Amino acid sequence: MEVLETDVLVVGAGPAGLTASALLARAGVKAIAITKYPGTADSPRAHITNQRTAEVLRDLGVEDHLRQTAMPHELMGTQIFATANELQKARERSQSGSVSRRRFRASPAILGESVVET
pTM score, two decimals? Predict the structure, then answer.
């Protein structure tokens, strides 16, 4: 087993953990980030980014890259990320008229298909 030495161990590689790791690295602090997951998520983990977060990302030099890869703002209200059970409930509400049919039809998610394209 390999032994790694570090000044800081960051547990969790979500937005907070990775941002902390990037800020520590920029400050010259030896840090390692670990996570229980084998890779990146296959679906969004944030729906909005607040102003202060955008400022920190800008300071780290990654804001432009994130803007290029983010979902365009005008499409934010047209997407549904849900389990098949949640989609079935949304479909039932749509058919009863309690949910906008236009919004439901705009979703790329259809029962039996992958919600997120890889």
Answer: 0.58
